Amino acid sequence: MKKVEAIIRPSKLKAVQRGLKEANIPCITAVPVKGTGLQKTYSERYRGTEQSLIMSNRTLIICVVSDENVDLCVDIILDNASEGNVGDGKIFIYHVEDAVRIRSRERGISAIV
Amino acid sequence: METINTLTAEDPQQLVNAIDSVWVAICAAIIFLMEGGFAILEAGFVRSKNAMSIIAKVMIDVVFGGIAFYAVGFGIAYGNSNGWFAFDMGITTDDLGLGLTVSNKLFWFIQMGFAVAAISIVSGAVAERMKLWPYALFVLIFTAVMYPIAANWVWNPNGWLSLRGFNDFAGSAAVHAMGGFAALASAIVLGPRLGKYDDNGAAQAIPGHNLPLAAVGGFILWFGWFAFNPGSTLGAVGNWELIGSVATNTFLASAAGGISTMAYTYFRYGQIDITMMINGVLAGLVAITAGCNVVDPNAALLIGFIAGILVDIAVLYIDKIKIDDPVGAIAVHGINGLFGTIAVGLFATDGGLFYGGGSELVITQLIGVLTIGSFSFIGTYLIMTILKKTIGIRVPEHEEVVGIDAVAFGVESYTTFE
């Protein structure tokens, strides 16, 4: 089991969600996040004063998938979230120790499919 | 410059003028608050990344529109009319022929509220995708020339519709149909927001980001309407019965509009759609605006009830024919401005078709509102097309994706940290 975390542009969330759902990976969690990467942000002012250290809006998608689905999941995110510009985001992949479905107390791979 | 005068009014006319001025000044101020209602209703119905830009658009409606209506518009609307147009500029001191008991300046102030309300209808339909400066230019043209021409026809004592006996008490046609059809033309020329239609052309929901805020905006507009309609008496003295029936009719129509939308959405979807209910209440208000002085309370209920259903059908239909109206301005103001004006010809206790008055009034109402609607639609379509071909009216794609607030204004509505 692997956890795939992707930081993407908020405008790409719908497309990624649709792509994953069509590939039978429907269980995702999305969190609105703020952060900075390499890209320049838009300068912001608040009542005349320039604000430095601005954070950009991004969406963090978390999905836990079986080992054989990791590449599929990553490919779908890449296909749907990329604009080809700086600021498209990143994907991180983690090993997952275990998973438990709260309703049925199933453990392991059967808890996530 | 008038001096402040604290002497007792010995001339009874002075007392009449004073009472009427208090009434009109309070109503005008409440009408002005409706701009705040427009601003937060529209802000709530758009995505958070564009919330401040829509507030900016409503502010432009007021600051540019108000001054344009002062410098040019008022003279065109209420100057010495040849039936279609008047060539006066600014606030004249002449008798306007309306039998006013308030000063021309106070009359200007309350009419300015109507002018900026008409243009604020457009701001909702162009939300989330129109560039700011072309919009400001359109506001100037609309409030300086276009709206005043319609007001001239309807409310100037020499206007051609006014002479024909056209009844549009507080502006279902002159304000709401005028603004609603301008909104329709603008939305068509601008095109839908990115992502509003998928590859197969099916409409997608783009939910507003703060629905309680939108609801409060609806309530402020609702409140404002109790000055918009009763204030159109333009004087309290001698109108004590009329003010009561106008206020009652206004309320009854709005409540009936809310109920019919509740019922319609419940039976259609199995759930009540509250955001549509806001539109339903406003639709009832728009529809009763023309006839609130000439219909009886039962007719007001019926007009509001029909309006609340019309708005639901219209919102869905406008979505379906690929016109993107983020706040429902076309359905609320355009369609129900049209319906409300025609309804006068059907339900007026004196002259209405259903009250044995024959078809004369309903034909006048039809001619009037269709002329105003097509004038507004064609004029706006031409102006918007010219602006589109020259300076461009739509924000660049990356700005639309990231949000107009961040790119064009450098602000965010909700600063998440701290």
Topology:
The complex is a heterodimer of chains A (113) and B (418).
Chain A: E1 2-8, H1 13-22, E2 29-35, E3 44-46, E4 49-51, E5 56-65, H2 70-81, E6 90-95
Antiparallel strand pairs in A: 1-5, 1-6, 2-5, 3-4
Helix pairs in contact in A: 1-2
Chain B: H1 12-45, H2 51-78, H3 104-125, H4 132-155, H5 160-164, H6 172-190, H7 211-228, H8 240-269, H9 274-289, H10 297-320, H11 329-347, H12 360-390, H13 397-402, H14 404-409
Helix pairs in contact in B: 1-2, 1-3, 1-7, 2-3, 2-4, 3-4, 3-6, 4-6, 4-12, 6-11, 6-12, 7-9, 8-9, 8-10, 9-10, 9-11, 10-11, 11-12
Describe the structure.
The complex is a heterodimer of chains A (113) and B (418). Chain A has a single domain, classed as 2-Layer Sandwich (Alpha-Beta Plaits), CATH 3.30.70.120. Chain A is 19% helix and 32% strand. Chain A is built from 2 helices and 6 strands. In chain A, α1 packs antiparallel against α2. The longest helix of chain A has 12 residues. Chain A is elongated and about 55 Å long. Chain B has 418 residues and is mostly helical. Chain B has one domain: Ammonium transporter fold (Orthogonal Bundle), CATH 1.10.3430.10. In chain B, α6 runs antiparallel to α11. The longest helix of chain B has 34 residues. The model of chain B has no long low-confidence stretch (mean pLDDT 94). Chains A and B meet through β3 of A and loops of B.
Q: Characterize the quaternary organization of these chains.
A: heterodimer
* Count of DSSP-assigned helices of chain A: 2
CATH homologous superfamily descriptor of chain B: Ammonium transporter AmtB like domains
Global mean pLDDT of chain A:
89
The CATH topology of chain B: Ammonium transporter fold
Number of domains of chain B: 1
Supply the CATH class of chain B. Mainly Alpha
Q: How is the largest sheet of chain A built, in terms of strand order?
A: 2-5-1-6
Distance between the termini of chain A: 11 Å
The CATH architecture of chain A comes to 2-Layer Sandwich
Radius of gyration of chain B: 21 Å
CATH class of chain A: Alpha Beta
> Could you spell the SSE succession of chain A in H and E letters?
EHEEEEHE
N-to-C terminal Cα separation of chain B, in Å? Answer: 50 Å
